[in-house]
Amino acid sequence: SPHKAHLAAVNVSWCSTWEIVQTVVNGTLFYTYSVCSIETTEQDNWLRTTFIQRRPGTSRVSVELSFVVRDCNTFGGASVACKETFNLFISEADADVGTNFRKGQFRKVATIAPDEVTQGRVLKVNTETKTVGPLSKKGFYLGFQDVGACVALLSVRVYYKTCPSTVQSLAVFPETVADALREVEGACIENAVSQATPRIYCTAEGKWVVPMVQCQCLAGYEATGDSCQACKPGYFKPSVSNDLCQVCPDNTKPSASGASECLCEEGFFRAPSDPPTSASPPSAPRDLTSMTLPGEGKLQLFWSPPLVTGGRSDLMYSVVCKLCDEASCIPCGEKIRFEPGPTNLQDPTVVVSDLDSHLNYTFTVEAQSGVSQFSAERPTATITTALDYTDPPKVTEIHLADRSPTSLSLSWTPTRRPPAHINHRYELMYRRKDDSTEGDVTTYKVLILDKSFVQIDGLLPATTYTFRVHALGPEGNPGSYSLMHVCISVIYTAYFLIMTFSPDQHKPLKMYIDPHTYEDPNIAIHKFVTEIDPSVIGKQKVIGVGEFGEVFRGVMKIPGRGEVPVAIKTLKPGYSEKQRQDFLSEATIMGQFSHPNIIHLEGVITKFKHAMIVTEYMENGALDTHLKGRDGEIPPYQLVGMLRGIAAGMKYLSDMNYVHRDLAARNVLVNGNLECKVSDFGLSRVLEDDAEGTYTTRGGKIPIRWTAPEAIAYRKFTSASDVWSFGIVMWEVMAFGERPYWDMSNHEVMKAINENFRLPAPMDCPSTIYQLMLQCWLHERLKRPRFLDIVNFLDKLLKSPESLKTIADFDPRVSIRLPSTSGGDGTMFRSVAEWLESIKMSQYKESFARAGITTMEQVLALRHEDIRNIGVRLPGHMKRIAYSILGLKDETSSLSVFAV
Ligand code: AMP
């Protein structure tokens, strides 16, 4: 801390005080503040620091104490008054009041108890850190109250955390005080720019998270570590980008340092719209050939790309057709068609159609690029070719020219005139129409003809014949047929069997499939999830921050449903492929679920640079935040209804063989109808996403307060450990978002659980519900109820609401531990106003005054109905005031433990 403070023992006239004592701890000499007045009761010895200035902007500081406490047993029976704890107090002030010390100005922060007391000569040094805040005045004093312990205070360290000034992805962020999750704006470093202001979050732990930075080095500069350096001579970078400087391309002059382009050498060119990396026009196309295509008058030209492309990617070709004789050439004219076109061809091929079979065509192909216009030379390739008649024409129609009772005269027209040098032949096949019924074999009469007409004699009168004609190529290969029935036409009716299938994907999946079982996560996701077109999504407002980026409220246009509100989870820019897959794994998992109490996935956007996960929108956000401050506003019946929903969702998940591992009220979302839905899936979520996650001795992060002992101890995560977490969620819900185990440390929680302590019933909690919680927290996991049992049990309670009437025993001493609720006999508050202020209930100052409650003695005598009569109506406020009074009466409150 930049503000050093010294401790001073303060003389309170009527008691003995702390002394400075030389103590040897582990061979080192220390000066300690010590007190050891254990002979008589009613000790009240104070030690106070000098004024500690609060740095503006910090509202919370940490106080780390190291101290030694002597075991009372070592004094034998000599001292009945001996204690083993002392108290930490704070008093805020806008100015240094010097040695003027008033106990009443201090409010209690915590009771400090040693982990280990000292019995013999070896001193056991304890270290304890407490967070104090919110602070608002210019500074503060810390006070240490001894009430009869034998204590030596070795050191007091007062500090706050900051996120240190940092450079991330080419943006610089200032040092920022870390006392809550806070968004911080930064700026791009020198020679870098960005369209959006760089942003990042500073966590309460002093860590930078979720950088949203798009800074890029200017043209002529490249990123080297945390700076943008000018390109070296001979190198260049053309634009603002994340690219590195590149060597000047061939045929350019060497550049100077910091160049954004390299100038072309003589004879080389660059178009204005060109990247500065290319310089010369392409050479001629090579190996131009042609091939006649099946069909009418079509041929295809092929060629190879030029040897010199000039290093450009905009290479294109154009084709010109001419009809040439020895003397001159004329254009082929409009009639000829090119597919895909005569110019701007990207592939080295083109199909030419509507050609005449009698003519020789000359095709000229030119390769072009964006710099061709600057060059006088036009390198081209040329071929002269004609249609090649390996391919016979088609016969599309047969005409009946004449008939007699026993003969028919037929003629037909081929699609193309046969060239003079090739003699086309036709094959005519015919049979009686009803001959097909004679056995399996169909027999035709076949005639090969070299003319396109024929007369057939010797036919049966009044009989239907079928004729088929096709042209034969030079090798006798057939062209397309033409078919004709003469005399009577026959109509066929065909029946089709229509088969109906019930496609598999409409049946509910029986088993959850871990996305890891797929080698390619991109296949896994599209098996379960719909890809959404980004154009139907509109983002509106940031509503949260997840591990991978911001969460937005937005709308999705759905044909027939109009615009529906959705939540859009985004992947921050600059992610790695691994992060992208982890991000999308949540959708792969969510997409397999379909249940009213599981957050519904609308779809994903993966084919777009910024991947997104789109889910239904839950108006009331996370369950814990939704409940906080609503003490008593929601009746128990409704809370139990919410729990029933969560249990139903969890039953569904356990039926699917899915173990959630991070069930907690913060991971349940609430919609406008107060329906609860389980959320937060994904493979990495417990490991990285959850701020509650704590590294265990075996590595890996676990949200200790919510996790069953067997899962903490040896990672036995099962539906039964989810049931334990569900019990904690029940407690969170019934306690209106209170933090489980309050400010106990994770270590203390684990210790208490192993010693068979359990959370006490929240205030006003139905006894049946608390009993269910205790069942969920049975040490032996196989004895815990299953989600099926829980849903059935809650259904039963909801069907007979009187079952919720009996309220579980409630011990106020452990349920509320506002730092300032305990203070012995109430004398630490000089006035009723000061006391109300300390419990943040100043709004009732006047009501108390009006009711004539002006001294703390009167406050201590208040009963429930008195408080109500004073005008305190809100149940939450009622509770806070009533239990603060209880706390004032019973100073031991903050030391109580709860046991089952
Ligand atoms: P997550 O990354 O899922 O923990 O989301 C971060 C925060 O965004 C949550 O704590 C919620 O406040 C909010 N959020 C996430 N999904 C939704 C949703 N479907 N509807 C409303 N708020 C949401």
TrEMBL record:
<keyword id="KW-0732">Signal</keyword>
<dbReference type="InterPro" id="IPR008979">
    <property type="entry name" value="Galactose-bd-like_sf"/>
</dbReference>
<dbReference type="Pfam" id="PF07714">
    <property type="entry name" value="PK_Tyr_Ser-Thr"/>
</dbReference>
<dbReference type="InterPro" id="IPR002049">
    <property type="entry name" value="LE_dom"/>
</dbReference>
<keyword id="KW-0675">Receptor</keyword>
<dbReference type="InterPro" id="IPR020635">
    <property type="entry name" value="Tyr_kinase_cat_dom"/>
</dbReference>
<dbReference type="Pfam" id="PF14575">
    <property type="entry name" value="EphA2_TM"/>
</dbReference>
<dbReference type="InterPro" id="IPR036116">
    <property type="entry name" value="FN3_sf"/>
</dbReference>
<feature type="domain" description="Fibronectin type-III">
    <location>
        <begin position="394"/>
        <end position="493"/>
    </location>
</feature>
<dbReference type="InterPro" id="IPR011009">
    <property type="entry name" value="Kinase-like_dom_sf"/>
</dbReference>
<feature type="domain" description="Fibronectin type-III">
    <location>
        <begin position="281"/>
        <end position="388"/>
    </location>
</feature>
<keyword id="KW-1015">Disulfide bond</keyword>
<dbReference type="GO" id="GO:0007155">
    <property type="term" value="P:cell adhesion"/>
</dbReference>
<keyword id="KW-0812">Transmembrane</keyword>
<dbReference type="InterPro" id="IPR003961">
    <property type="entry name" value="FN3_dom"/>
</dbReference>
<keyword id="KW-0418">Kinase</keyword>
<feature type="disulfide bond">
    <location>
        <begin position="36"/>
        <end position="150"/>
    </location>
</feature>
<keyword id="KW-0130">Cell adhesion</keyword>
<dbReference type="InterPro" id="IPR013761">
    <property type="entry name" value="SAM/pointed_sf"/>
</dbReference>
<feature type="binding site">
    <location>
        <begin position="543"/>
        <end position="551"/>
    </location>
    <ligand>
        <name>ATP</name>
    </ligand>
</feature>
<dbReference type="InterPro" id="IPR013783">
    <property type="entry name" value="Ig-like_fold"/>
</dbReference>
<feature type="domain" description="Eph LBD">
    <location>
        <begin position="1"/>
        <end position="168"/>
    </location>
</feature>
<keyword id="KW-0677">Repeat</keyword>
<keyword id="KW-1133">Transmembrane helix</keyword>
<dbReference type="Pfam" id="PF01404">
    <property type="entry name" value="Ephrin_lbd"/>
</dbReference>
<dbReference type="GO" id="GO:0007411">
    <property type="term" value="P:axon guidance"/>
</dbReference>
<keyword id="KW-0832">Ubl conjugation</keyword>
<dbReference type="Pfam" id="PF25599">
    <property type="entry name" value="Ephrin_CRD"/>
</dbReference>
<dbReference type="GO" id="GO:0005005">
    <property type="term" value="F:transmembrane-ephrin receptor activity"/>
</dbReference>
<keyword id="KW-0808">Transferase</keyword>
<dbReference type="InterPro" id="IPR008266">
    <property type="entry name" value="Tyr_kinase_AS"/>
</dbReference>
<dbReference type="InterPro" id="IPR027936">
    <property type="entry name" value="Eph_TM"/>
</dbReference>
<dbReference type="InterPro" id="IPR016257">
    <property type="entry name" value="Tyr_kinase_ephrin_rcpt"/>
</dbReference>
<dbReference type="InterPro" id="IPR009030">
    <property type="entry name" value="Growth_fac_rcpt_cys_sf"/>
</dbReference>
<protein>
    <recommendedName>
        <fullName>receptor protein-tyrosine kinase</fullName>
        <ecNumber>2.7.10.1</ecNumber>
    </recommendedName>
</protein>
<dbReference type="GO" id="GO:0005524">
    <property type="term" value="F:ATP binding"/>
</dbReference>
<feature type="disulfide bond">
    <location>
        <begin position="72"/>
        <end position="82"/>
    </location>
</feature>
<keyword id="KW-0547">Nucleotide-binding</keyword>
<keyword id="KW-0597">Phosphoprotein</keyword>
<feature type="binding site">
    <location>
        <position position="569"/>
    </location>
    <ligand>
        <name>ATP</name>
    </ligand>
</feature>
<feature type="active site" description="Proton acceptor">
    <location>
        <position position="662"/>
    </location>
</feature>
<keyword id="KW-0472">Membrane</keyword>
